[in-house]
Request: fold
Amino acid sequence: SSATAPIRATLFPGDGIGPEIAESVKQVFRTAEVPIEWEEHYVGDQIDPRTQSFLTWESLESVRKNGVGLKGPMATPIGKGHRSLNLTLRKELNLYANVRPCYSLPGYKTRYDNVNLITIRENTEGEYSGLEHQVVRGVVESLKIITRQASLRVAEYAFHYAKTHGRERVSAIHKANIMQKTDGLFLKCCREVAEKYPEITYEEVVIDNCCMMLVKNPALFDVLVMPNLYGDIISDLCAGLIGGLGLTPSCNIGEGGIALAEAVHGSAPDIAGKNLANPTALLLSAVTMLRHLNLHDKADRIQNAILSTISEGKYRTADLGGSSTTTDFTKAICDHL
Amino acid sequence: SSATAPIRATLFPGDGIGPEIAESVKQVFRTAEVPIEWEEHYVGDQIDPRTQSFLTWESLESVRKNGVGLKGPMATPIGKGHRSLNLTLRKELNLYANVRPCYSLPGYKTRYDNVNLITIRENTEGEYSGLEHQVVRGVVESLKIITRQASLRVAEYAFHYAKTHGRERVSAIHKANIMQKTDGLFLKCCREVAEKYPEITYEEVVIDNCCMMLVKNPALFDVLVMPNLYGDIISDLCAGLIGGLGLTPSCNIGEGGIALAEAVHGSAPDIAGKNLANPTALLLSAVTMLRHLNLHDKADRIQNAILSTISEGKYRTADLGGSSTTTDFTKAICDHL
Ligand SMILES: CC(C)[C@H](C(=O)O)[C@@H](O)C(=O)O
Ligand SMILES: CC(C)[C@H](C(=O)O)[C@@H](O)C(=O)O
Reply:
């Protein structure tokens, strides 16, 4: 076991299947002797006026203080007068880039082989501004906001990521032929940053064409960077290519180097508590957290154990066509470690 | 040959490969003895002040008068001070619904079998409002406009289409969890129309989830209706599932029953004039025009001839892995008639 002081990381187990898959991460981390001490926080049962949401101020402070966190699925409580949990986290922690690696899992067959993409999504503005109003009865408007600051920041993150992860190409996805000012500004910022990275190939692809090319031949792409809504759409499309959100990790990067990894699938209340959930997305998200902490050895070991377990096919949860429980699948991963 | 007076239809051969593939349509229509007389119009070489674009007022008047038209690919001329040709047509002719049938071509293998979808796109507003401005340096906004009138109109078209084409389900695609007012109004209108069609199953699907489901299992969908940008994205994604824009027809429906069918692929200047272009998208678009005119016998005969030719595989253009010229492929279709 590690002699250095453990790293504290915030854990939001989340709702539904969240606690079960979080337990799986804790067990795998223990077995791999990852020097992390979890600080667990739960979604509150009333609105915290400081966050205007069911997320408590203390839980956000925990991520700010620790700098790293892992989040399970959260079911936004029903009712009015509060902000969505996901959006609260993004806004309050200024999580400006959402990074989703998406690669074919060896041994798990879909229609696509050898998918190996990274989508990097601007996570704070664009179509998610929340600014909407009714002009007159029957006529409503939403504002899409693009700023130079946020565009440069996410573009910088994308190129830096490409460079430090041995990637060769960054594609900026846009619809600047229609939204010339907003998407035009986004592209302008990407071009400015691209000039500082002459070793990375830079290209611009219109979103409709990008989606067509992705389903025809995803190998055409490497790192994709884009405004908020396009990232929402394309990251889910890419997840679909390799089997769905149950298999794809996600990590949010905030100002000051904060990293909040998360499973982006739902809380699956129908199978909650039944030991049936697939913890893969949360496990692989936890791996991205380890990489963010430069714990690459641990990250590699755990990632290999997960991929080998799925690849061998003996232990798979029901969503992957198997009949293993969450705990059996987790044990199989631990046995690989 | 038909004894009744021929129907006049406007033809925009368009640029690049446009004239070659338009010639293919004319030949197939002649062979099938379709009672249509083409009225050809070309993109002008200067801006017509009445349209603010290179499209002449006369050409738009021709579509208005005839009520039906067919359009090849148009390369928007470079320069400032004029509107895009596609957008001019949509605005001036009030082409409120863009209908794209997307089905697997028998014998032409992609990763997907049995795709059979119809995307119906609102074509006049949403993210295509053209309203954008700079708030301060480095901060720009685009307005997305959703109106009750346009949403009801396209929803009505979608349900009517479903009913009259033996379709069972309409899915409204949206992001109302984020854009509650704009996409919320769109959904509200779809729900209102859905109530008038109890025999059609109605569902609402968030766009990111829709894209994931489409690439995992497109058979989950039937007719999809959605705001402008989502339609732009999803129709191209669907085209990718079955092989690309070279194979998918498109038809725009305007107020007063106007139908302007179009090939949505590019003008492919690199192969223009070389007798290499694939006329399938324009031919299948011409078939949708015939259906709009209730010439279903002719439409069926021509569609079958096209599909049989592709399916047999002896005559295919280079984009489909064959080595036929445009004229040989066209002749093969005519031989099937
Ligand atoms: C749940 C929803 C608000 C969220 C989004 O739209 O960003 C989700 O789709 C995601 O991608 O994290
Ligand atoms: C060329 C472009 C303006 C157009 C659009 O965005 O609508 C095209 O992508 C389409 O789908 O017809």
